[in-house]
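Repro:
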Amino acid sequence: MFSGLRLTRIADLGTLPVEITAPSSSPEIAPEIRSGGIASATSASDVFSICESLKGLFKEENDISNKVIKKLLLGCAEKPADRPVTAVLAKDMSDLVSKLKVTSGVLPHAKYWDEGTEVNFGQSKYRVIAKLGSGGWGTTFKVVELDKSTDEEYGTYVAKAIHTELEGNSAIRAHKKNQVIYNSHLHVFHSRDC
């Protein structure tokens, strides 16, 4: 996108011609692309673009935000060789993000849940292990049940966050033969039943 992906869909061409140049006005375009055109783009150029795009999302408010900003600034190095490779950057960011906790007490909408999201639900707490898919009625997750006080893991389940109460009630009727826990439009089906 920042390297000019609109230029990549040229009919009947297997690659981009060298004479095509990327637009140079956007700050997210890597310096080597600004000076040498789209033919000089590498994976290091992508690292520059994503880091430059993301660094505006963080403010120097706490230790973790400051560390994230420092990592993103490394990805914005002028020379491509000075930028971290994608795998290292992704691992470093995952490590930092895993230390973040939602402190507001407000859980985002289920469509934004991702690995590590913890949901208090009835007498239990669940941590999302993976998002399995979304459909017309809701989003399905693989979750692990946790003890609310010790975070001891009890078992893994398939859970579905239903969009509306009406759809939730229909889902309960459809799955009435399965063991279902229902509250606030969330169903937890024991994995042995799925």
